[in-house]
Amino acid sequence: MDAAQDGFSPGPAPLHLSARRFRRGRWEDLPEVAAREEAVRVLHAGGSSSLWAWPHDLEDLALGHVLLDCAPRAGDEPGDAPVPLWTGRVERLDAPAGRHCLRVSFAGENEPGCGLSRPHRPDAASTAPRLSAAALLARMAEFFAAPGLWDGTGSFHRAALFHPEHGLLRVAEDIGRHNCLDRLAGFCARQGREPAAHALFISARITGSLYAKARRAGFTLLASRGAVTSAALTAARAQGVSLVGFCRPAEERLTVFCDELGRVTA
């Protein structure tokens, strides 16, 4: 997988600065870098939201945020059903330096009596990817090896869409792990892709809140290099979602926490 295929581009350069480090009983001066994080204002029909994010490729972030965090849904439990991924329009507005403002709108939302068309969601069980444990480890190794920013600053999480036939389709990086999922949801909406047909790879542990967002996007197979919490596990078991944690190719191991439909094979 090359950078052009996964959509990665380096974006704004990190902030270079001088710092002091205390190590082994003594102080030393050293050059340091800090990841750029800037304010993002997202306007939508229901109001507005304030985010902090890596200031690059913000259209997918804004669209995904509105779809996953601002669209009406039944409740706020981790087991909420997926929201429809409407195709929206994202417009950049003028903002002061160091700040960004984007407006997200959907066809017909401002026309009297005209509601949003909700696209059909295919059955998740029939569209979810299936792959062997060995293949999952191999693909996760590609995910970690993909070009990115986390090695340079230590500040970034990353997430990716994996499709059995097409490989890693999109790698998203941001300082906030939830922002990574927003970016992938926005990408899916703009490209007309069904999240349930892809595995979600993520660098962060799968907590209840992260699971809830991934489920609202429609993912049914989640694989993380980190741990899985009880809240995520309880919700995943109730919804037939597959959770894989501690997926660490360098150690040649992974742990399947739940997988009632057998998406991870021998």
From TrEMBL:
Keywords: Cytoplasm, Molybdenum cofactor biosynthesis. Gene3D superfamilies: Cytidine Deaminase, domain 2. SUPFAM superfamilies: Cytidine deaminase-like. One of its GO terms (molecular function) is sulfurtransferase activity. One of its GO terms (biological process) is Mo-molybdopterin cofactor biosynthetic process. InterPro entries: Cytidine_deaminase-like, FdhD. This is Formate dehydrogenase. It comes from Desulfovibrio porci. The lineage of its organism: Bacteria, Pseudomonadati, Thermodesulfobacteriota, Desulfovibrionia, Desulfovibrionales.
